[in-house]
Amino acid sequence: MGKKATQPKKAKKAMKAARKASYSLIKRLEPLVAPFRFDGKGEFHLKSHSTVGKGGLDKDDGEKILEANRKRLSDLQERLYAQDNWSLLVIFQGMDAAGKDSAIKSIFENVNPQGCEVTSFKEPTSHELDHDFLWRAIIALPERGRIGIFNRSYYEECLVTRVHHHLLGKEKIPRKLIGPSLWRERFADITAFERYLSRNGTVVLKFFLNISKRKQRERFLDRLEQPSKNWKFSMNDVTERAFWPRYMAAYQDIIRHTSTGHAPWHVVPADHKWFARVVIGSAIVSALEDLNLRFPRVGAALKAEFVKVRKALEDERDIEKARRRRPVKKAVGKNSGKGKKTRAAIRPVSRQVMMPRSRECRRFSLAANGSLGSNRSAFNTSPGRYNA
């Protein structure tokens, strides 16, 4: 009875220690996350956010933090999957060549693919345009216990369509619903949608990879110079550079009106890819640590079943070991006590018996073919002997 009473105490003590460790990690990562997080409180001006920040770190320090975040994220993802209560939605937005693809590949390197899914949102298809602007994102939302990654997202419908107004015509929206208030209405819809997700157990993290126009040009040139990156380049990418001021204004408006406590934006300096990955990875790890994820506890009835299963498996193992240890009986010859001598004794006998038969068969064959003439009495067909 005393032993059973101490088990809950040990479990509580372990949970308390784990919670303390999580809180400590969140505190250590906070300086890498807080300066870049905007939750809607106060003013927001995109120009006041640097694209070249490194948080006082050098690249070697950054790589160490990134590797530690990868390992911790792998463990947290396993707990998230096992607990099967929460889900995580990670949204990446940014101009072309901002580093979205490489950030996803690097940060989620150690995550089990079975619990993680990436969805890239390109130009809407005709089928998607027959639905509301949130529809294609809704059907791609992560299940409980899983991580969903949006490479671009429903925010494109407040960005590209705002920079290029003619694209609204393809969305088949009734004319009377298109007016000056359209963008504010979409911001309100998105905010309500993200609030709904958070109320139902989906943690929403949004990252805007803030790259400078100069750095984008350098990365475009790099894509042209390296054959392995040529496929990434599109003339449309260069064309869109002409609309840079419009895109920056649209992003500023998006971040101002859709940042909330339950779905904050992180404006990440993206001119240095390694630092962008440090910030993003730290924000994701901190958010998951805050959920206090734990592996499910097993009930008393199931533990009793475990005892039976363990005994059955151990008995099976013991039987197999006993069979392997049992001595194997050697075959014994009919006329000898040892196998080797028996085989040696058999060989001469078999030659004495078989060789004459073999010769007799050959002679019989010659006689049948007429090689010995018509005198068939030249040999005796009795087994084992013949006359010359």
How would you explain this protein's 3D organization?
The protein is of the alpha/beta class. The protein has two domains: 19-289, P-loop containing nucleotide triphosphate hydrolases (Rossmann fold); 340-388. It has 13 helices and six strands. The protein has helices at residues 2-33, 59-83, 100-107, 126-129, 135-138, 160-163, 182-199, 213-225, 235-241, 244-258, 273-289, 300-325, 339-368; strands at 37-38, 87-94, 116-120, 147-151, 202-210, 265-269. A six-stranded mixed beta sheet has the order 1-6-5-2-4-3, sandwiched between helices.
Explain the layout of strands and helices.
Blueprint: H1 2-33, E1 37-38, H2 59-83, E2 87-94, H3 100-107, E3 116-120, H4 126-129, H5 135-138, E4 147-151, H6 160-163, H7 182-199, E5 202-210, H8 213-225, H9 235-241, H10 244-258, E6 265-269, H11 273-289, H12 300-325, H13 339-368
Parallel strand pairs: 2-4, 2-5, 3-4, 5-6
Antiparallel strand pairs: 1-6
